[in-house]
């Protein structure tokens, strides 16, 4: 049974994608406007698609000197670098290697092994110096690049959720181009839980492999289906393994993680994707609900959540 409540939706562009924000309850118009302003503020600090931002200041100073950044930016950089040092696949320094392959762009190609080896020297997360007292970041080698694209949406989505709670938004959906956060209680079910569709990564958007029903949470997907390069009949996807310098060899097509925090789900989706299968004991991690794995051969596996067809 559906509960009647005021609903407002606002759609805009940011973070390189289409952003759709839907809020239910009082003060929704102000909450939506404030959310887009907050997203723009974070994008200004974190983008690597413009010459001026806090992250680009770090990159421009690579091999030269530390750069002081805002507390919020430092905290996110620190989280990204520490996760990268775990060496499970996520690497916030992988930019030089991504640019070498250029998958998804007109100059995409398969690089020579020597070129890959040279770029791998520039993607070592141990070559980042973090000073928490001074709030500075220093990329020790010239040519290194920090790119928070693999974690920033999660952080921003979590901060928008915080903002909405401050505005008293009773229910809402934050959609940052597929990175989803469900805030509060669902207005569509008496038990307040959300019905969340899991995208089939091998089919057009909004075609699902099934649905899960959960309380307020986030859903983040990592997969190989969005960008790829085909050379001599072989397909190379865009998720590069910094350990080899080449696209990850995997039987997976995509994995969707459900968690309490979106920034956690971002990194955990990559952890599972690079693992290629469920990790024993992973669902016992605090703040984790579970995950759904979709394999290239079409079979689907749920871990920790009940997937309904």
Automatic annotation (TrEMBL):
It comes from the Bacteria. The keyword Flavoprotein applies. Its EC number is 2.7.1.180. GO terms for molecular function: transferase activity. This is FAD:protein FMN transferase. Keywords: FAD, Flavoprotein, Magnesium, Metal-binding, Transferase. It comes from Lacticaseibacillus baoqingensis. It catalyses: L-threonyl-[protein] + FAD = FMN-L-threonyl-[protein] + AMP + H(+). The keyword GTP-binding does not apply. Belongs to the ApbE family. It is an enzyme of class 2 (transferase).
